[in-house]
Design brief:
Four Helix Bundle (Hemerythrin (Met), subunit A), 4% strand, globular, 9 helices, mainly alpha, Arc Repressor Mutant, subunit A, 225 residues
Length: 225
């Protein structure tokens, strides 16, 4: 059993990386026998890996019909961003209340790094810099439970954004201006919990508007990747 779990961990990690990178596109079917051959594993660890990916919201398993990578609809995107709005409002409030001067300085540096990444050709560089900043706030809110929820939502956000930017039906990636995190960072680092929460929620709503604008009414599925 220990060996099986080790194989399942490896398969889970490999498949998760492929989903996050877009190599396994939204809507793509995941056939266990084929996956077993590709990963050099038996069906048992493949099944375990799929269940773990399903628990993270990255895969959908249909009883008797197999599994597929999650297809993202505008309603899915809206729901995830609404959750992020409440969650990031809470973690930003806690960060403003509890963060040390050194942690505030690091947050400012993460904001500067995001701005520098806007010039990169690979949109994933910008996406990961954005996620790093928000995860830093969550992890230093001093609430492990909230931090874990934030990490799960950020994982889903990476997948959705990568699917969008890789979609052939979409135009060029949206242009983002430097300083989009400035209001949030200023509110947090001036130790104003109310302003920090409001800024975080406003930032999440703006991110939703931008995403839906570039997504349009189409679901992000394998056919558009």
């Amino acid at each position: 059993m220990n060996e099986s779990r080790t194989v399942a961990d490896r398969v889970y990690g490999e498949m998760r990386d492929k989903i996050l990178s877009g190599e396994l596109g939204a809507g793509m079917r995941l056939v266990q026998r084929k996956l077993a051959i590709e990963h050099g594993a038996s069906i048992i660890p493949i099944s375990e890996a799929l269940r773990r990916l399903e628990s993270e919201g990255l895969v959908i398993c249909h009883a008797g019909l197999g599994a597929q990578v999650k297809t993202w609809t505008p309603d899915d995107v809206t729901g995830i961003h609404l959750l992020r709005e409440f969650l990031e409002g809470a973690t930003s409030r806690l960060f403003a209340e509890k963060a040390s001067p050194a942690e505030c300085l690091t947050l400012k540096e993460l904001g500067q790094r995001y701005d520098e990444c806007l010039a990169e050709e690979d949109p994933m560089v910008m996406i990961r810099a954005d996620i790093d900043l928000h995860l830093y706030i969550a992890k230093h809110s001093k609430s492990p439970t909230l931090a874990q929820f934030a990490e799960n939502l950020c994982t889903i956000t990476i997948t959705m954004k990568n699917a969008l930017w890789r979609s052939k039906k979409q135009g060029p990636r949206p242009r983002r201006e430097p300083g989009i995190h400035d209001a949030l960072i200023a509110a947090i680092t001036t130790r104003d919990p109310d302003a920090a929460e409001q800024a975080a929620r406003a930032h999440a709503r703006e991110a939703l508007d931008v995403f839906l604008c570039h997504m349009g009414s189409e679901a992000l599925s394998a056919e558009s990747i």
